Amino acid sequence: MKPVEIYTSPLCGYCHAAKRLLTQKGVAFTEYDVSRDNDLRAAMMRRSNGGRTVPQIFVGETHVGGCDDLYALDKAGKLDPLLAG
Fold first, then answer.
1. How many separate helices (H) and strands (E) can be counted in the chain?
2. Residue 46, pLDDT score
3. Which residues, in sequence order, are bridge partners of residue 62?
4. pLDDT tens, N- to C-terminus, the chain (85 residues)
5. Which of 14, 27, 60, 66 lies deepest, with the highest CB count within 10 Å?
6. What one-character DSSP code corresponds to residue 66?
7. pTM assigned to the model
């Protein structure tokens, strides 16, 4: 399974929803809290081609996008193959 990284902030409902979906699928992920770390937020924005909102989700080197994008991939049956690599 490819590594999953998710940039979040503690009060973000979309972040919690994205993490919930990943957890339900049994996917381990690395979470980065950007709420108090400007350098980490800048790194997130670079990796996501300017994405400023959280969550920003990566599967391996693939930028998935945000929570809605993650759920859309799952609904389309494309998330599991992406995770499997």
1. 4, 4
2. 97
3. 59
4. 899 999 999 999 999 999 999 999 999 999 999 999 999 999 999 999 999 999 999 999 999 999 999 999 999 999 999 999 8
5. 66
6. S
7. 0.95
> Per DSSP, what are the bridge partners of residue 51?
none
Read off the amino acid at residue 26.
G
Q: Quick one: tokens of 71?
A: 């759920």
C-alpha–C-alpha distance, residues 70 and 59, integer Å: 10
Q: How many CB atoms lie within 10 A of CB 14?
A: 17
Map tokens 């859309």 to a residue: 72
C-alpha 66/C-alpha 62 separation (Å) is 12
Specify burial of residue 27 (Cβ count, 10 A radius: 0-12, 13-18, 19+). middle
- Integer Cα distance of 12 and 57 in angstroms: 14
Q: Which two tokens stand for residue 32?
A: 């980065």
